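Task card 7
Instruction: Convert sequence to structure tokens.
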Amino acid sequence: MTEQAVDIHAPLNQNDYYRIAERCIPGAGLGGYSLPDDVRFIAERGEGSRVCSVDGRWYIDYVGGAGANIIGHCHPEVVEAVREQAGRGMHFFGTLNDLAVELVERFVGIVPCAEKVVLTTTGSEATFYAMRIARAFSGRTKVLKFEGAYHGNHDYSSFSLFPTEPADYPRGKPDSGGVPEALADTVLVAPYNDLDTAEGIIQEHRDDLALVIVEPVQRIIFAETRFLRGLRRICDENNVLLMFDEVVTGFRLALGGGQQFFGVTPDLASFGKVIGGGGPGGCVAGRADILDAANPKRKGRPDYAYINGTLHGNPLGAAAGLATIQILEQPGFHDGLFAISDKLLSRLQQVLDRHGVPAIAAGRNSFWQILYLNEAPTSQLDIMTSNIGAARHLDVELLRRGIYVLPGVRRFVSSVNTDDDIERTEEALDSACREL
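Output:
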């Protein structure tokens, strides 16, 4: 029997929206996320550090648009920039627009590796296109990624994301159905922060290896500086391109991203999320000679990398991105962001210790997550072999108490998180620990 349709012209409550979603969306969730039925909600709006459900319940938001909302929801300067541009045009295609060009100019002046920029719509697109550009430029077919790294939703990135045991390096396993087995021969895998293993794989495959792609921060695990510097040296010695996936670390660790924070300049870097101020926007940045492989005037040549997207350089995203950069350029922005993060993690750890919970408030520099570990993880394998069930249970209890986190997923501090947010989060964790 077909479920009766909801009258969308009448006022809808949260249950109405979920009935529609359950009928029309697989799993009634977006992408890979679907909250447990008893804590799920429909977001209606966001203000600053908080998000509100259609039923009027406010949550302190630590999901932060997957890290994009570094300055919170609906910052007045960003809203005004988008509103002004919407009145001038929401979408153009086939030619440049003024704000996209202005954004690229600012970006080249900010990011150390950026001599030229190829605009995309998302971070996933950026990593996919970067791999294509690297292959076209080098004439080689293989890419080396690191175990546990998330580089987007495309087939080449869907290997060894959630390891529960060490891989048979350098061969990884696909984490999704529908990924052709043949791709396993082109995507090599090495353990994160393990320079010796990476060096051996790079040397062995140097004649076929186009690119080494690495996240400066993998989930909440920071790369060791010697690891990134070592990769730079090894790639140079073996004539292999080095790429940083800065989709999350871009603008968040520093205005110039993880490469500025760690002092290591890659050949290529992918960006997304925040470059569009939380709107549509991403890019591949890097050396001019490499990115010239995507020059449309080279069409028909074997070393041409085809790049195209209807929303590339979207003016609304460019407007939001330019406004966001102006805010991030204010003196002391990142120091203030990191101070909020330090305070939150310290207070949460005190609560865990007070209740004797065998967990840590892990992370730093605005990244955080509660993990059932004795010490900070050094690889995704550490996280996957911890007590994930207990951590998810605790996260669900936080959701019940008005703290928006995705169970089992890293979270972020924003620059607009307040002392009141920290106190309420501390109280929610204290209550959750008592319940557990």
